[in-house]
């Protein structure tokens, strides 16, 4: 009995040892190769699905490079998609995720938010990494890095750029009595500082008065960056160059609200523009010939105008009946402008693999991949070598919009700017719906800013 | 050694009252305590507390210039919805649907219950379509094709307060309707017959028999619905987003805008605490005004 027991024990032990040995042998290669999961936070956004998509693709490139280097590490990208409606709501959700220690390894954000992440210690300072990997970051347009800069350094990698403008419908302008020379000269006159913001209202009013079009100018119906172009035209830069703090100038602010007030009083901007639907607005401009101007951005052509509303996507066909102007100066001889609003990649300060994340984002910023994003969604590229790409050259809106970059401004990279922007939008809604005069609106903004934001300078 | 009855009493207490006490503590008491704690911190958009402060209360009591308008609007909204719909219209529905035949009455009550039974997002999406300011909105389609209106109406801009009262009232009326209907059904039928024999008309019957019998249900609905309107904002958020400007930002929505749209959680918590205080004050005033104590006291006559 004892012998039997011993024998059984021996057999079992041998089997276990054998099994373990086999296990060790078969597990050996798996142990040697370590797969690191890197998570990217990305907003679901039809105007830029490749922002995250390119990072997923870049994992193969990074893995190939790691294999070549003889490294046993491989990366796998996990995308965490946020359903937020806009980049502001998305950034707030991401701040909360970081706040409770559930942040990703890297994220996609609108550039003006980066210093909010930096201020709370959620974003990694990237200056050393950018220097370490010139093969990835060396040729990115130097001016784009400004959009990712916080007081003590660079905290993001530019992902794209764009230009925002007033699109206009030439057919309606012709119908309203403007001759061809006037219509084709508008972009040049704007760049020369000859066409003013008030003249845009005048042109739009003629269209409303003399055609069947209901509206003169339409703008987005929710909070967003493009309103700052109008504020910028009236001298509102919102940042004190000396301290870097937010700055509000009552007079300039009143002047900018005055433009919205006049536009509504002239029947040019509808009083309910902020409660209209996106779809209805686009349909009114692109399909129903119901508005002379549409203040938005270049990517709208690739995202909606060509595919959804069937506008001619060849350059000649498009400019036959449509056009765009930069944001005019407030007064003759002044400075026109456009807004470029780069989207950026950020790296989490607490990621366990900062080097891998930065390299991954470096590959995702590769000229080829970035051009995929640029040409499919009409966003401007980030490197000069993209300009040589035949696909990029064929995408004529990009080349034309790039011309505007000379006069492009950024939103301020101040951690509280997004909050101020929301206050400004509420005030615009107040002015347009007749609840506030321009003066009241400026007073409202100052009051809200003083009550809700820190260190705001009021002039 | 404790007696068996003593143990049974303790066990019964735990079995019957335990779950209710736990629910009350976890879902009512603890959130209020957390709210009080948060309201004294600088909890901001990244959910971090760096210091304790009383500045949120300074803002509630004087620093926030928007708050007076918000409270005035809340008063109009609560009173308007109560007076027009939750009590009055609920009462009208109950009176009408109990005075017609049972099947039709049941059918109409069912129809008026639909808004309450539909998911809130679906219900409001229908409203968004009805009041869409373009010619594609249902209301505008009817007004323009049937009544020949030339320009589409934009109620979201021109009458936003009326809109939030109506859209909330359509849901609120059904609660009063149900309670009042059951109360009317509880009135002994011989009273109606006796009144008829005495020559009373329909209005006199409602005035002298039905309404006095509805005193307690009306008092209850008024207090209960006032409190519920005070804290509800989801329909307004979905329909008008509190706008245009601050036109339809009632107090509860104001808390939401401050806390979740601006990330000022500390201030939001202070505002919420103040709302709890307002709620308690409204409940106590209602209690006093309607003399609810009498409703809840033990009956003086015990019918065996």
Can you tell me about this structure?
Chain A: It holds the Pfam family SBP_bac_1. Chain A: InterPro entries: Bact_solute-bd_prot1, SBP. Chain A: It comes from Chelativorans salis. Chain A: Residues 1-32 form the signal peptide. Chain A: Belongs to the bacterial solute-binding protein 1 family. The complex is a heterodimer of chains A (459) and B (304). By secondary structure, chain A is an alpha/beta fold. Chain A has 3 domains: 1-27; 33-158 and 341-409, Periplasmic binding protein-like II (D-Maltodextrin-Binding Protein, domain 2, 3-Layer(aba) Sandwich), CATH 3.40.190; 164-340 and 415-458, Periplasmic binding protein-like II (D-Maltodextrin-Binding Protein, domain 2), CATH 3.40.190.10. Chain A contains 21 helices and 15 strands. Chain A has a 5-stranded mixed sheet, with helices on both faces. A 4-stranded mixed sheet of chain A has the order 8-10-7-11. Chain A has a two-stranded antiparallel sheet with strand order 4-5. In chain A, helix 12 packs across helix 21. The termini of chain A are far apart. In chain A, 49% of the residues are buried. With 304 residues, chain B is an all-alpha fold. Chain B has a domain at 63-250: MetI-like (MetI-like fold). Chain B has 15 helices and no strands. Chain B has helices at residues 4-39, 55-63, 66-99, 102-117, 120-130, 138-145, 155-158, 160-185, 189-197, 202-213, 215-231, 234-239, 251-261, 265-289, 292-296. At the A-B interface, helix 3, helix 20 and helix 21 of A face loops of B.
């Amino acid at each position: 009995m004892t012998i039997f027991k011993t024998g059984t024990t021996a057999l079992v032990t041998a089997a276990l040892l054998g099994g373990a040995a086999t296990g060790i042998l078969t597990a050996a290669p798996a142990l040697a190769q370590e797969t690191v999961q890197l998570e990217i936070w990305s907003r679901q956004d039809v105007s830029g699905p490749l922002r995250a998509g390119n990072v997923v693709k870049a994992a193969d490139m990074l893995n190939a490079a790691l294999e070549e280097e003889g490294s046993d590490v491989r990366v796998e990208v996990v995308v965490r998609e946020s359903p937020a409606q806009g980049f502001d709501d998305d950034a707030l959700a991401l701040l909360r995720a970081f706040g409770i220690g559930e942040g990703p390894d890297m994220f996609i954000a609108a550039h003006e938010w980066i210093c909010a992440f930096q201020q709370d210690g959620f974003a990694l300072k990237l200056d050393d990494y950018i220097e370490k990997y010139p093969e990835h970051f060396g040729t990115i347009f130097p001016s784009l890095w400004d959009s990712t800069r916080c007081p003590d350094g660079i905290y993001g990698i530019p992902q794209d750029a764009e230009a925002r403008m007033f699109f206009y419908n030439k057919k309606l302008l012709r119908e309203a009595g403007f001759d061809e020379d006037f219509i084709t000269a508008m972009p040049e006159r704007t760049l020369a500082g000859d066409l003013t913001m008030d003249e845009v209202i005048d042109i739009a009013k003629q269209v409303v008065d003399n055609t069947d079009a209901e509206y003169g100018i339409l703008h987005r119906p929710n909070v967003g960056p493009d309103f700052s172009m109008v504020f910028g035209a009236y001298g509102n830069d919102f940042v004190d160059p000396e301290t870097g703090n937010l700055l509000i100038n009552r007079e300039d602010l009143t002047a900018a609200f005055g433009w919205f007030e006049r536009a509504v009083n002239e029947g040019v901007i509808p009083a309910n523009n902020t409660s209209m639907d996106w779809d209805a607005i686009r349909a009114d401009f692109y399909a129903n010939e119901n508005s002379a101007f549409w203040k938005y951005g270049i990517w709208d052509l690739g995202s909606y105008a060509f595919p959804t509303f069937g506008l001619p996507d060849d350059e000649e066909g498009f400019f036959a009946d449509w056009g765009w102007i930069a944001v005019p100066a407030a007064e003759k001889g002044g400075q026109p402008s456009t807004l470029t609003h780069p989207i950026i990649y950020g790296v989490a300060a607490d990621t366990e693999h900062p080097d891998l994340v930065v390299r991954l984002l470096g590959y995702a910023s590769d000229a080829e991949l970035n051009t995929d994003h640029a040409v499919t969604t009409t966003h401007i590229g980030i490197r000069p070598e993209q300009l040589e790409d035949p696909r990029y050259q064929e995408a004529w809106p990009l080349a034309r919009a790039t011309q505007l970059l000379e006069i492009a401004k950024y939103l301020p990279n101040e951690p509280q700017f997004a909050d101020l922007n929301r206050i400004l939008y509420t005030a615009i809604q107040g002015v347009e719906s007749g609840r506030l005069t321009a003066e009241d609106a400026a007073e409202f903004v100052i009051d809200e800013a003083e009550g809700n934001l820190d260190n705001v300078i009021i002039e | 050694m404790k007696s068996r009855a003593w143990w049974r009493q303790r066990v019964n207490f735990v079995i019957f009252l335990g779950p209710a006490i736990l629910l009350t503590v976890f879902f009512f008491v603890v959130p209020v305590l957390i709210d009080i704690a948060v309201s004294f911190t600088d909890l901001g958009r990244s959910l971090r507390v760096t210091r304790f402060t009383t500045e949120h209360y300074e803002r509630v009591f004087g620093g926030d210039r928007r708050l007076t308008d918000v409270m005035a609007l809340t008063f109009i909204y609560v009173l308007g919805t109560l007076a027009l719909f939750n009590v009055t219209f609920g009462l009208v529905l109950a009176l009408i649907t109990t005075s017609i035949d049972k099947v039709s009455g049941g059918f109409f009550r069912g129809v008026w219950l639909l808004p309450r039974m539909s998911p809130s997002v679906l219900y409001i999406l229908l409203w968004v379509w009805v009041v869409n300011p373009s010619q594609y909105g249902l209301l505008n389609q009817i007004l323009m094709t049937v009544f020949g209106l030339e320009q589409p109406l934009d109620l979201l801009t021109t009458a936003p307060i009326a809109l939030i009262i109506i859209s909330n009232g359509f849901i609120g009326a059904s609660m009063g309707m149900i309670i009042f209907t059951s109360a009317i059904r509880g009135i002994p039928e011989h009273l109606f017959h006796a009144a008829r024999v005495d020559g009373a008309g329909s209005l006199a019957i409602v005035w002298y028999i039905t309404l006095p019998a509805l005193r307690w249900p009306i008092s209850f609905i008024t207090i209960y619905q006032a409190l519920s309107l005070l804290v509800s904002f989801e329909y307004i958020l979905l329909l008008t987003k509190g706008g245009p400007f601050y036109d339809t930002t009632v107090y509860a929505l104001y808390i939401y805008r401050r806390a979740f749209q601006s990330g000022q959680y500390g201030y939001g918590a202070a505002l919420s605490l103040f709302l709890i205080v307002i709620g308690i004050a409204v409940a106590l005033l209602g209690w006093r005004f309607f003399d609810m104590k009498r409703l809840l006291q033990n009956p003086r006559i015990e019918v065996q």
